[in-house]
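[Automated response] Your request has been received and processed.

Submitted sequence:
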Amino acid sequence: METRPAPPAAQGHRRPAGVLLAAGAGRRMGTPKALVHDPDGTSWLRRSVRVLRRGGCAPVVVVLGAESGPAAALLTDQDVTLVVADDWVEGMGASLRAGLAHLLATDSTVAVISLVDLPDVGPDVVERVTGAAGDGAAGDGSAVLARAAYDGVPGHPVVIGREHWPAVISCAVGDRGARDFLSARTVELVECGDLAHGFDVDTRESLS
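Generated structure:
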């Protein structure tokens, strides 16, 4: 994988769709991460939706699973599409499959995959990584494969063009998500270590 700065966002392209994976039970956290709030009361779920929206994504699809009812109640005033992954207990792969399967029924050509437990990843990261969609082999970005990197280490968000969605759906299993698919292909790494550290947060101790 090659690391280089992202090119400017292509002009005139349809906006990328945001897919927020928020279905897990959060076993190490002790509660689903979709229900976690920072000590100051900030909802992780609402913040993550806001990051994708302000980063230029539309529509925003939120994939829920564990405690989907209470999680959905946090978003009643948000312009989002809620998708419930009934097989969420399988792991991240189930959430990813559900989100991309929903998008296949839309006219979106680029998906920006993010996670609910990335508290320091902001809209600036999303904007930088989605700018890489301008390098897709297809003019609409449908062939793009790109992801954020933090000091050279691959992370989220991940940008996946539409032509790859069926293959990702077919191989996304367990907690590996799209890892196996991406590792077998050339993916543009977009360095974002100057904007965030990109670590996911798994325990309450990490909140303090």
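Summary generated for your ticket: The beta strands are 2-4, 17-22, 60-64, 81-84, 110-115, 145-150, 153-161, 188-191. The CA atoms of residues 3 and 54 lie 25 Å apart.
If you did not submit this request, please reply to this message.
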